[in-house]
Amino acid sequence: MPKILNIVETAYRGTLEEQDDTILWLTHMLKNAGADISLLLRANAVNYGAKGQDASGLHFGEIKMTHPPEIDKDIEKMMEKGVSMYLVEEDARERGLTDDDLLSGVRRIKRQGIPELIDEHDQVWHW
Questions:
Q1: Parallel, antiparallel, or unpaired: how do β-strands 3-8 and 107-109 relate?
Q2: Which residues contact 41 (CB under 8 A, 6 or more apart)?
Q3: Spatial contact of 41 and 8, defined as CB atoms under 8 Å apart
Q4: 8 and 47 in contact (C-beta within 8 Å)?
Q5: In terms of Cα–Cα distance, which of 126, 18, 35 is closest to 71?
Q6: For the whole model, what pTM was predicted?
Q7: 49 by DSSP, 3-state: which?
Q8: Using an 8 Å Cβ cutoff, are 14 and 67 in contact?
Q9: In the predicted model, what is the mean pLDDT of the chain?
Q10: Which own/partner contact pairs does 13-16 have at CB distance under 8 Å and 24+ positions apart?
């Protein structure tokens, strides 16, 4: 079975329509089906690693989002299932996220460490 690295760079894709990120959902489903899959968050997607996210007040005009996304809980559930979770620490720092803001269990790597992480996997998917 190939070892897959799923790199997510575009954040909040489908979170309004589907109440979760499409690629996070796909990653979780593939893990449940037995895939050996890891996730790397970079660019704006590092926000997914921030704990305590709350989109419960989100609304558009008169339309209130009744089932807001809970991205941090999605990330925690995937880690509980055995998905290795990484994020680029420079990207987090550029967005004002400190170690205290981030979920425990998410491994921080430097940008220069991305090629090594890619080398550890047989397939790389980039979103």
A1: unpaired
A2: 8, 48, 49, 85, 86, 87, 88, 91, 106
A3: yes
A4: no
A5: 18
A6: 0.89
A7: helix
A8: no
A9: 91
A10: 13/127, 15/55, 15/69, 15/71, 16/65
